[in-house]
Design brief:
Layout lengths: L2 E10 L4 E9 L5 E6 L11 E4 L4 E4 L1 E6 L12 H10 L2 E6 L10 H11 L5 E4 L15 H6 L4 E3 L8 H13 L3 E4 L4 H4 L4 E2 L2 H6 L3 E2 L2 H20 L9 E4 L5 H12 L4 E5 L1 H5 L2 H6 L15 H13 L4 E2 L28 H10 L6 H15 L15 E11 L18 E11 L2 E4 L1
Parallel strand pairs: 1-4, 1-5, 6-7, 7-8, 9-10, 10-13, 11-12, 13-14, 14-15
Antiparallel strand pairs: 1-2, 2-3, 5-16, 16-17, 17-18
Family: Belongs to the metallo-dependent hydrolases superfamily. DHOase family. Class I DHOase subfamily.
Protein name: Dihydroorotase
Pathway: Pyrimidine metabolism; UMP biosynthesis via de novo pathway; (S)-dihydroorotate from bicarbonate: step 3/3
Amino acid sequence: MSILFQQARLLNPVDGIDAIGSIRVSEEGIIEKLSIGSNPLTPEAGERIIEMEGRILSPGLFDMHCHFREPGQEYKETLESGAAAAAAGGFTGVALMPNTRPVIDSPLGVAFIRHHAGGLPVDLEVIGAMTVESRGEGLAPFGKYASYGVTAVSDDGSAIQNSQIMRLAFEYASNFNLLVIQHCEDRSLTAGGVVNEGMYSTQLGLKGIPDISEAMMLARDLLLLRWLEEHKLHDPLQRPRYHAAHISTEASLNLIRQAKKDGLLVTCEVTPHHFTLCDEDMFNAEEKGNYIMKPPLSSARNREALLEALRDGTVDAIATDHAPHASHEKQCPPQEAAFGIIGLETSVGLTISQLVERNIISMQRAIELLSVNPRKIMNLQPISFKEGSVANFTLIDPLIEWKVTADKLHSKSINTPFIGKTLKGKAIGIYHKGRLQET
């Protein structure tokens, strides 16, 4: 049966739409009728009516940085449980990082993910490893990736330390228009580190991670990009595209600002936990395991720099770095805890609570960061609200207040510091693949 989304706040930056309106979707999942204005569409016999009452209907959200752990660590998360968490969080698509066991460093791994993704409620895009087994030594088969529809490569969690390998990765990726995603970390500075280096790491007696380690690696990469543009590249259609993952420091943001001014094809993302928390929150927490992540929660000054970068447009995307871990990997001494937290189900709430409600960004900018820009960066098809287009929506109630509780999470893991926190704003459903899934 057809579905009528009646009197929603239609919010789609792709089409320049931010207005009250109604959309009718056919049984096949195609937008049949779009009406802008206060006059609702007349319901047809037998169709389902969803009274939106001014709540937001946006293009389906997309998270470009997730870990679903399958294959190899299904005790933490599976493709099925990760997709359930994504749908519950309002995401109709996610991009999966390749650091599974085994690493997704060949078309065989890509095919495995896609084979098991068909019946899931969300799209799973696969990011291929940049080097074989993500060891940073020999490049993975970028050309074969491209033939399988892969649009990005990364050794996430294991930044390429060798500058020659990174140079070759840029050159090889540019031949196939693949996005290079870097986890920026100079491991010679971070080895053995657990939390942000500073007063709190000293008081806790934990080895610190200096925040300059992120900018050091980013600066190396940007220097390589500039050099390649000036000396080695002759085809403007083969310029390397670079994306800095989960940026967390003011120094990194300043480098990215300058790179953009210089015309380099550079983008970056930030996570909700980095723009919400700082190392003082970790210090004051009773159980510290769920505050252990890479990059670590940084200083309050760096958090303020992230907020300013979100406000001024330096940041291109919000991504969760959804990283599930079993309880025993977090409920342990902090120096033994696994790095990372889950984030798909709290992303919308944190974005609205911490950014929109505090007038740091508008709701339209939030949708750009959570949906439009990630798809554009990943070179994926944009979502349009036009008659004849495929329907791909997220339904959002920006006013609802809700508490994060472990029993309501859909992920297989519950490693988040936001348990017990009250957030404002929540995804209340998605429409994708011809199906409405309400949360």
